[in-house]
Automatic annotation (TrEMBL), chain A:
Name used for this protein in its record: Bacterial Pleckstrin homology domain-containing protein
Organism: Cryptosporangium japonicum
TrEMBL record, chain B:
Keyword set, alphabetical order: DNA-binding
Record flagged with keyword Isomerase: no
Family matches, as Pfam families: TetR_N
KW DNA-binding (keyword) present: yes
HTH tetR-type domain residues: 24-59
UniProt-listed InterPro entries: Homeodomain-like_sf (IPR009057), HTH_TetR (IPR001647)
Protein name: HTH tetR-type domain-containing protein
Amino acid sequence: MAQVSINGDDLVVEMEALEKLWAFKSRLVIPLVNVRGATADPGIAHDPKGLRAPGTNVPGVITAGTFHQDGERVFWNVRDRARAVVIALADERYARLVVEVPDPAATVALIEQAIPR
Amino acid sequence: MPDTFIERSSGGLSRRQNLRTAGRAYDGVSVEDFVQQLGVHRNSLYKVFGSKRGLYLAALRWHLEHQLPPLAERLAAGADVVDEPGLDLLLLAAVERAPVDVEVAALVSKAWHDLERALQLSPAPTALSAVLGERLRVRAGVRRP
């Protein structure tokens, strides 16, 4: 589970204590100008995820860490796919973040309202 | 990403919203549905549109730019369009998304304005609210007695 918030002009994604171990990341700070949008997408967990490095992938249980797919890096931190949110980025280390959040609809609204279109 | 992809995705969505998913709420249509119905790659969709809302806005803009002007012309010529689904995407946008999305609200407001102007040119001028209301009745299967 990740906590997503907005701090000034940045999007902040904070991993919970134990997940820092699985995901090899505790906190991501992304300038809002590099955030392209957010979508609740439970179905994405069924898609191929590419090669993980570094990270943890126990199919059906947890997907966490950095995955490489089609020349892109995607950051995953999902256990309950029903609560997966995809955050698309531009000009960042990661092309996308796929994170589990407590309230997907609220996180999507928070991000979509905060980014300039 | 080539414009044709955007055109295919947003145009495809706009047309299909009229045909197949017109009865479903924005929240009831998932990215899974887009991926399966439009045959586009999920990652490409996020790369081009950023989010489901980004795709929805692109589809709505495509619809207003390509499909609404011919409809407005026909209204101006006095045609009856309430038996067609041409206004449905706009109606759904107005009901569902405009109250919670300022960008959708702005697009709907401009479309209302264009349609109102077209209706004033008609040989038998009608109020837009009457046309929209009639379309809602027809869509619901309820005809004026």
